[in-house]
Design brief:
With 297 residues, the protein is an alpha/beta fold. Helix content is 40%, strand content 15%. The chain folds into 2 domains: 28-132, 3-Layer(aba) Sandwich (Rossmann fold); 139-272, NAD(P)-binding Rossmann-like Domain (Rossmann fold). The structure holds 5,10-Methenyltetrahydrofolate (GUE). It holds the Pfam family THF_DHG_CYH.
Length: 297
């Protein structure tokens, strides 16, 4: 029997623990605060940001949301970030990606105070992660790590393949998997658009993390019998549904489920974990900035 890993349920449990930590900080006079900044007209981005704000409310985090028209100059966004960096009630800052083409996303990430960088995208935090001394682990890869642990999947000594090499998922995911630490110690291969014979790499792996952003590109015949499949893809494809789209992963769930020993669904897999780990990082940021210690899960 294939286990369908319930990301929603695991995320709820983590969020309950994170909420206890948030309440403890509030009791000490430090209510954790998260600022989300949206500079985009993209419908999906709006949905994700509002999900993050709702999660704040449910967790006992003070959510602040700011929007900038997408035709504003980059300086307007930088000024907003500078203000949030200076605001002591704001412990975490998230600028929703992607930003408009005329705004240099690298410059945006570098503008955020690294102590408030709850995405973990600032070069200082990337460097710390690679050096084996992470401050904020990026939310999606951290969520995948927690998901594997909760599903009882030991990564130690396993062959893992990460499909995708983005700065926000693929690269940090591979880094966490090779780390000499719990949830790491896997022999890790990173595949991407220039990889020769992806199927061969997938078939000799125990754990597959699909983060390529290509709808249903990994099919059952490409993976090994008994492997664990984590699907990071959130692709909206046109459909006759009420919303006008359907959400599919990078994995063809139907065929992959027939061979995997465990697999995450989309929706309800990695997505909810990403949001739970954003709450986690925000509480961690508040703890680091205030010196009030909490026991995060
Ligand atoms: N600075 C920044 N940080 C991010 O963390 C970030 C970002 N930019 N830009 C976009 C991506 C995408 N992302 C998701 C988070 C949750 C779900 C999620 O919860 N999805 C639900 C379904 C949601 C739906 O119905 O559309 C699920 O998979 O079950 C999806 C995608 C965070 N991102």
């Amino acid at each position: 029997m294939t286990t369908i890993i319930d990301g929603k349920e695991i995320a709820e449990r983590i969020r309950a623990d994170v909420s206890n930590c948030a309440n403890r900080l509030t009791d000490e006079g430090v209510t954790p605060g998260l600022a989300t900044v949206l500079m985009s007209d993209d419908g999906a981005s709006e949905t994700y940001v509002s999900m993050k704000q709702r999660a704040c409310e449910e967790t006992g985090i003070e959510g602040i949301h700011e929007e900038l028209d997408s035709d504003r100059p980059a300086e307007a966004l930088f000024d907003r970030i500078d203000d949030l960096n200076e605001d002591p009630t704001v412990h975490g800052i998230l600028v929703q990606m992607p930003v408009p083409n005329h705004v240099d996303s690298r410059a945006v990430l570098e503008r955020i105070d690294p102590m408030k960088d709850v995405d973990g995208f600032h070069p200082e935090n990337v460097g710390r992660l690679v050096a084996g001394n992470p401050r904020f682990k990026p939310c999606t890869p951290h969520g995948v790590q927690k998901l594997l642990a909760a599903a009882g999947v030991d990564t130690e000594g396993k062959d893992a393949v990460v499909v995708g090499r983005s700065d926000i998922v693929g690269k940090p995911m591979a880094n966490l998997l090779i780390q000499k630490a719990a949830g790491g110690n896997a022999t890790t291969t990173v595949c991407h658009s220039h990889t020769d014979d992806l199927t061969e790499k997938l078939r000799r792996s125990d754990i597959v993390v699909a983060a390529a952003g290509v709808p249903e590109m990994i099919t059952g015949d490409m993976i090994s019998e008994g492997s664990v499949v984590i699907d990071v893809g959130v692709n909206r494809i046109d459909a006759d549904s009420e919303k006008g789209y359907e959400l599919v992963g990078d994995v063809d769930f139907k065929s992959a489920k027939e061979r995997a020993s465990a697999i995450t669904p989309v929706p309800g897999g990695v997505g909810p974990m990403t949001i739970a780990m954003l709450m986690y990082n925000t509480v961690k940021a508040a703890s680091l900035q205030s010196g009030v210690e909490v026991n995060l899960p």
